[in-house]
Write a structure and sequence with these properties.
The chain has 250 residues and is α/β, with parallel strands linked by helices. Helix content is 40%, strand content 24%. It is built from 10 helices and 10 strands. A 6-stranded mixed sheet has the order 6-7-8-3-9-10, with helices on both faces. Strands 2-1-4-5 form a 4-stranded antiparallel sheet, with no helix packed on it. β4 and β5 form a beta hairpin. α3 packs across α4, α3 packs parallel to α6 and α7 runs parallel beside α8. It is globular. The protein starts with 10 loop residues before the first strand and ends with a helix.
């Protein structure tokens, strides 16, 4: 009897190296399983967000490989990389909403680009996405981003990312600029979306306490390498010096 073939990781970094004016990544490797939530932690300027740009094919590594669903992103044609991005939901730091568009049009933006839904189905999908992030479509759909609180803007950004129903969600500092209470609600929302949508999530954050609550595994980036990769329990018990220092400072 032939043994079943193991599924490729949803995201895989294989000995990835990248430098700008200085080395940023020095041969990092990480595999994110399908349906898993992995948080990449680290100080500002350590290359956390750079990892997301590599996954999206916005940057090419100097060495190593980046794979999504088993396919090499650097080896893709420009058209294939564009198709890849359309299948990934990205929650940008600061939400990155279009100021001149209403909440409805912001959430509908990617759906209109995909051109696979008629207007009725598109409106239904936008309504479902807003409800999913605990926003009342009747109250917020016609509002502009400037009329929303920081937490509401973040929720709209998440709704826009999940509306096309991607298999992979990327979060870039989802709690940045939010007060502690609002940050907690966003963390709870990330966890709930993971349970309900069963998507793979890669979260970049400096907020280790929040990520200890929500991530299946955590990867701590330091000096271009991962100082630690493992679950929350293992991280708390780690004897690795930088990991202990990072946790103590949180």
């Amino acid at each position: 009897m032939t043994a079943p073939v193991a599924a490729a990781p949803a995201v895989e970094l294989l000995d990835v190296a990248l430098a700008f004016d200085r080395p940023v990544l020095r041969g990092v490797s990480l595999a994110v399983g399908t349906g898993e939530t992995v948080a990449v932690l680290g100080e500002s300027g350590t290359g956390k967000s750079t990892l997301l740009r590599l996954v999206l094919g916005l940057l090419a590594p100097d060495g190593g490989d980046v794979r999504v669903a088993g396919r090499s992103v650097p080896a893709m044609s420009p058209a294939d990389r564009l198709a890849l991005r359309r299948g990934i939901g990205t929650v940008f730091q600061g939400a990155a909403l279009f100021d001149s568009l209403t909440v409805f049009e912001n959430v509908a933006f990617a759906l209109r680009e995909h051109r696979v839904l008629d207007e009725d189905d598109l409106a239904t999908r936008v309504h479902e996405a807003l409800v999913l992030v605990d926003l009342d479509p009747g109250q917020v759909a016609s509002q502009l981003p400037a009329q929303l609180s920081g937490g509401m803007r973040k929720r709209v950004g998440i709704a826009r990312a999940v509306a096309p129903r991607p298999a992979l969600l990327l979060y870039d500092e989802p709690m940045a600029g939010l007060d502690p209470l609002t940050s907690n609600t966003i963390v709870d929302l990330i966890a709930r979306l993971q349970r309900e949508l069963r998507v793979t999530s890669l979260v970049v954050s400096h907020d280790v306490r929040a990520m200890l609550r929500v991530a299946d595994r955590l990867a701590l980036l330091h000096d271009g390498r991962f100082a630690f990769v493992g679950d929350a329990e293992a991280m708390r018990a780690s004897a690795e010096p930088y990991t202990r220092e990072f946790l103590a400072a949180a």
